[in-house]
Automatic annotation (TrEMBL):
Organism whose genome encodes this protein: Geodia barretti (Barrett's horny sponge)
MF annotations from Gene Ontology: hypoxanthine phosphoribosyltransferase activity; magnesium ion binding; nucleotide binding
A single BP term in Gene Ontology: purine ribonucleoside salvage
Protein keywords: Cytoplasm, Glycosyltransferase, Magnesium, Metal-binding, Nucleotide-binding, Purine salvage, Transferase
Domain of life: Eukaryota
NCBIfam families reported in the protein's UniProt record: HGPRTase
Family: Belongs to the purine/pyrimidine phosphoribosyltransferase family.
Stored SUPFAM superfamilies: PRTase-like
Enzyme category, top tier: transferase
First-listed, main subcellular location of the protein, grouped into a coarse class: cytoplasm
InterPro entries: HGPRT (IPR050408), Hxn_phspho_trans (IPR005904), PRTase-like (IPR029057), PRTase_dom (IPR000836)
The protein, known as: Hypoxanthine phosphoribosyltransferase
Amino acid sequence: MADLMREIDLPLEAYMMAASSYDGYESTGIVEIIKPLDASITGRDVILVEDIVDTGKTLDCLLESMQSEEPASLEVCALLNKKSRRMVEVPIKYVGFEIPDEFVVGYGLDYNQRYRNLPYVASMNAAAVNGAG
Ligand SMILES: O=P(O)(O)OC[C@H]1O[C@H](OP(=O)(O)OP(=O)(O)O)[C@H](O)[C@@H]1O
Ligand code: HPA
């Protein structure tokens, strides 16, 4: 997010939401908004920035919640798109990288809250998952 903002030469405001639905590397399918948006987006041009879109369930839930506030526009930017795993169709206007069906960690992405601090995105293999304790 910080890297992206540094590249945008326009006045902008940034707010964080938090949603969670993963237990390890499996989606529970139940998306919980842990921290809602603490600003009004009614009538505003909004870009929702996601680190990864996998099944699409999280994004679908967030979009529905945000659309209900009637922003002037609402687009999605995602660093990573795992399209082959999609269960819900979601509109993504800006995609950093299309990636294969592999569980990835690093650069903010976690496996049970670990590995977010890796300065790169890495594919996590089964042996690493089993040893991750
Ligand atoms: O397309 P989906 O299958 O819904 O997966 C994508 C979501 O999964 C991750 O969040 P997670 O639930 O792991 O919470 P986190 O951001 O705290 O890691 C990620 O940050 C996305 O929001
Ligand atoms: O591959 C992934 N890595 C980390 N978190 C995720 N949430 C959905 N897919 C992933």
